[in-house]
Amino acid sequence: MYEFDSRVRYSEVDHHGTMTVPALINYFQDCSTFQSEQLGYGMDVLKKEKKAWVLAYWQVIVKRYPKLCERITVGTFASGFKGMFGNRNFYMKDESGEQIACANSIWVYMDVEKGKPVRVDKEQAEAYGIDEPLEMPYEDRKIEEAESYEEKAPFPVRKYHIDTNEHVNNCQYVQMAMDYLPENFKIHQMRAEYKQQARLNDVICPARAVDENKTTVLLNDQKGEPYAVVEFK
Questions:
Q1: Torsion sign, CA atoms 226, 22, 84, 168
Q2: DSSP code per residue over 114-138
Q3: What are the pLDDT digits (tens) for 204-217?
Q4: Contacts of 145 (CB under 8 A, 6+ apart)
Q5: Reduced 3-state DSSP string for 168-222
Q6: What residues does 190 pair with on adjacent strands?
Q7: What span, in angstroms and rounded, lies between the C-alpha atoms of 205 and 43?
Q8: Fewer beta carbons below 10 Å: N end or C end of the chain?
């Protein structure tokens, strides 16, 4: 298990003065990155070995959004390894120790040179260890698609969407999808299923379906195949 303390910054809040969903996700991503660096399996090491952890699925639940300048603790741990997959939980606590957000995630260990998943190294799995999964309402990895979608205007992938793996960062997909939420939609849960990697200058063709308490956004390629499916409740 790994934790770090922080304080909600002005750059991380919306017009209500509370943390945004992308900021929350970035905290979780940063936390797992800090742990990997501490354990000796950080970015430089993986690049040298031509390996990478690629996110396949997110489920993020928010009980309460922390406010500007509020002190928080962010934590993460591995909850299981199987073949080429790794499961990881995340949590955010307020200053009193109450959990205000949590997440489940599934990652795929990739050989970036071959572009194929590979089995997780035994030494790496042992370094992370395994803790008991968080108590949270887990949903299926597969996001159920809507019967029909409303297509939106396509747009290209920009340089600021790209991360160190040379493809669109997983949080950027969520931020893209949030542009198609109904007005005043308050996110209590976000799920994202990642299908393929979008790269610089690829064209993303969005489409959305709005139900009573749920919005599903497809971020497709020009052939209609999804890069990511994002669901908000």
A1: positive
A2: TTEE-PPPHHHHHHH---PPPSS--
A3: 999 999 998 999 99
A4: 209, 216, 218, 229
A5: ECHHHHHHHHHCCCCCCCCCCEEEEEECCCCCCCCEEEEEEEECCCCEEEEEECC
A6: 60, 232
A7: 31
A8: N
Q: How far apart are CA 139 and CA 122, in angstroms?
A: 28
CA atoms of 59 and 137, how far apart (whole Å): 10
Which residues have a Cβ under 8 Å from the Cβ of 99 and sit 6 or more positions away? 63, 91, 92, 93
Q: What is the pLDDT of residues 46-71, one digit of tens each?
A: 999 999 999 999 999 999 999 999 99
CA distances in angstroms from 221 to 58, 117, 123, 132, 156, listed in the order given = 20, 22, 37, 38, 10
Q: What is the DSSP string of 65-112?
A: PPBTT-EEEEEEEEEEEETTEEEEEEEEE-TTS-EEEEEEEEEEEEET
Q: Token match 């304080």: residue? A: 7
C-alpha distances in angstroms, 2 versus 10, 90, 131? Answer: 25, 10, 11
3-state secondary structure of 61: strand
27, 11 Cβ separation under 8 angstroms: no
Alpha carbons 79 and 128: distance in angstroms, whole number: 9
Does pTM top 0.90 for this prediction?
Answer: yes
**Rounded distance, CA 167 to CA 210, Å?**
28
